[in-house]
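To whoever is on call:

I kicked off a structure prediction for a single chain this morning and the downstream step that reads the tokens threw a length-mismatch warning. I double-checked the sequence; it's 228 residues and nothing unusual in it as far as I can see. Pasting both halves so you can look.
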Amino acid sequence: MWGDAGTRAGASNARRRRLVAVLTLTVVVAAGLAGCGNQNEGRKLDKPSPNQTTTTTATDQSTNQGAAVGTGNGVTVTTKPAAMTLASSAFADNATIPKDFTCRGGDKSPPLQWTGVPAGTKEIAVVVRDVSIGGFVHWVITGMDPTLGGIAEGTPPSGSVQANNAIGRPGYAGPCPPSGTHHYEFRVYALSQPSGVTAGQANARTATKVEQAPRLNTALLTGLASAG
């Protein structure tokens, strides 16, 4: 009996020792896992490895910067028309009109040249006034072709129409100031509709008719003339 009891007691002790060993191992493993989970607490995170990195490509905002306006990208631009200019090979702007183009010389109309006539122009007209004495009309010439580009010295273009000047005769009347220095404005008009001026019409009415007619552009040249 005692022998059998001793055997049972030995077996029981062996089971207890195995249980203690298992429990001890379980505690050690649990402690190790807990330690691994907290190893980066309070520290700066390590740089992720390449296979953990997501690359985001930023949209390039500079692709269209500095591109010329109207070259694409759905941009529609309306540009201003070129400036219309009026000049004469006989005198510069705000300079003296040569005697040959005044009443004291040949009384011829000076040569005129213009540029920048807008598309859609139906007729070119020129009006000359002495603005020093209330706009005395020296010349009204209309009906000129938009492609003409100018008037030759003393030669009205073919097909043009000249109204009466303030002296009462058709065509050009050269500057003839009685005293001092007067300013003469030569104005060219790019009309969007025909002026309707006819030859021999009274100067005041025709000059105003041209000046108030629908136009696309105009240009000015000023000349000076003195008495004596």
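Update from on-call: the warning came from a stale cache, not from the record. Cleared it. Sanity check on the structure: DSSP finds two helices and nine strands in the chain.
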